Amino acid sequence: MLLRALVQDVEQFELPITFSIVAHFTFGVTGALAGLRRGYDVIGVVFLALITAGGGGLIRDGLLISRGPPALLTDRYLMGTVLIAAILTLFFYRHAGRVGRVIAVIDALGLGAFAVHGVQRSLEAGLNIPSVVLGGTVTAVGGGLLRDILVREEPLLFKPGQFYGMVAIGGCGIFIAQLKWQLVAPDDAALYTIVAVFVVRMLAIRFNWRTTALQAPAAR
Fold first, then answer.
1. Strand partners, 210
2. What is the pTM of this model?
């Protein structure tokens, strides 16, 4: 009952489409950059941009909400946003310098934006608070997970290393707390959450804040 009451307190809001567009654009860029770094052709680059931008929502809506296609396939702006991101990346790739660093910065921005977007969608579906945090986290990290799998890299999410999944979980918690206690308007809460996630993620990269393995991997 307590969890349900908490959901009812915070679920009546709607964020502007801007937050979703930012999330899809940034992850579309990271997907396209990963494809270019791998030497893919235009089809491969665009597909990887689409799966990176929409993968988290696909997992969230398929496993947690089950309420029709993800927003990428139903919102008229989002598909075009990802395609524009892929096309711009194709044109400006040569000027990107150190591609790995560019991906990390853009990915950090998209991580917070997708956490906010996932929390909103999960609250709209009436999920309880732990499930809302899960939905926001899956939305934030799911696209990157599918991207890494498709390019045959060990997923960043699973490896001991610089804070990533933990930052997404923390961002979901910060956003929900601001909504619950009505500290600021939902739009401002979303913006503050994105900034907080970006800053912590960048600090984790800068100072190499890391998780550690629970035990040494077994010898092959």
1. 162
2. 0.85
